[in-house]
What does this fold into?
Amino acid sequence: MTAAVEFACVSRHFGPVTAPIKAVDGVDLTIAEGAFFAMLGPSGSGKTTCLRLISGFETPTSGQIRIFGQDVSQTPPHLRNVNTVFQDYALFPHMNVRDNVAYGLMVKGMGRAARYGRADEMLSLVKLDEYGDRKPGQLSGGQRQRVALARALVNEPRVLLLDEPLGALDLKLREAMQDELKALQKRLGITFVFVTHDQHEALSMADSLAVFNDGRIAQIGTPEQIYAQPRTRFVADFVGSSNVLPPAMTAALGGPAKWASLRPESMYLSASGPISGTVTALRYLGSGTRVVLRVGEADVAALVPTGAPVPQIGSASAFAFAPGALHVMEGE
Amino acid sequence: MLSDRPSALLKISAMAGLLFLHLPILLIFLYAFTTEERTYAFPPPGLTTEWFAAAWARPDIWEALSLSLRVAFIATLLAMILGTLVSAAMSRAKFFGREQISLLILLPIALPGVITGISLRSAFGIMDIPFSTLTIILGHATFCIVIVYNNAVARFRRLSGGVMEASADLGANAFQTFWHILLPNLGTALLAGGMLAFALSFDEVIVTTFTAGQQATLPIWMLEELIRPRQRPVTNVVAMVVFGATVLPILLAYYLTRNGSETAGAGK
It folds into this structure.
């Protein structure tokens, strides 16, 4: 299978050469064709800069970017066969929805009838058939997002970039759009690369994701790998809300003297359990209760499913964990 | 308690204020039709339209009018090109000293015309540039640029940088982005700025007196004419022309930017 996007030791530094701000620092990355790829990380971790490196709005300070094998490191945005759904949608305010969607075809010189036909097809794809004559200002946030999607897809890009595409939508709409984007990607078979800071979104939508930290990739893998086998403390902490155990504790639990992660949901109340301490906090989450246990110097959280007995704050309690749940991390 | 209807006193003073501001303009129009040519006697002893014919027949008026139009057109054109470029640069780039440069661009309109005039005059003197139509145009362009710049920079600020990137992302080259995205969004602001600049140039007196040499623009011609006692109402006829040439563009510019703000803001 060909790689849709490849980064070979790509860096993007800003500011003075003597003391550069390393937005992206030596990133190696391969995104397979047809993948739904997520770039996950806190703000300022370099994920958006990586997206802009693919779209061409940033050029790498060093390294090489290839799209379907072709070096595009110095290619300007308008000559790349990738399109972007921008975070603030960036619809053209003076054009109606149909002209917005047809814009990419117009600048290529396609005739009016042909491009309006294609634009209407795209609008139908995103379920906005009746909205071609409206101005962007007359649409809701969710509708603008669909227009932005249709506008980016009309050019039939081989890679579609989405910059925090659901960030501005409310929760209900966001969940609906997540399913819809996923279905659309399956149907079109286009490579989707999307940037998000929301770990739930990344885990549920992507079939492969990269976790960014400080301009570098902390880990690449499938959502299952990233969640179950975090490579570093940062990944374990950022993706989900895992317990990060110091080496001494890992050793006490029967592992090697290394950092380890333990998911709260893989622990259960057990009087003879190896993790014992004092209950310091309880948080009811609906599907369960998060119980925080003070164990020596560390806090360890466990998820008690709703219906099971919950210990009192201040009482002594002990937890056991399922065999294999303790994940020893390779990195720091 | 506040009543919805304004008090009689407020109404009367508002009316008085408006009359004080606008009655003199009406008087200028009235005296263009008077039969008395030496003094502005009130009420006019009789009404006539002979001064329009007299003004039409005077070659010095035509000369002044043509100079004024040429100066205003060229100065406005210069200002529209340079003002747009400056505003594009100032709103897109961030560099050291940006705020200071922005202040320097705005300064010509804040400076008293006398200062601008004297400094331009001495600068032309030092550089051995003879006073001509060109020097008047350069003098006018200094403040016309500010007007265009102010209008354009406000529109640039409202236009999010994202739409230019979106255009490039969809395959448009720089020229296509300028033509299809930037110009339609900037157009009314530029037109309004241009019209205001034209009006400002057309009735400018102070800077012109310092940079004109022997030539007379229409306002300068009027000033010179007021000293002479003959054919006074001709001056009033010319004043009506100046009034029309400045007020109409200003009104148009007002309506253009008013509608423009609605369409340009619609995307957000």
The two ends of chain A are 33 Å apart (CA to CA). Chain A has a mean pLDDT of 89. The first strand of chain A starts at residue 3 and ends at 14.
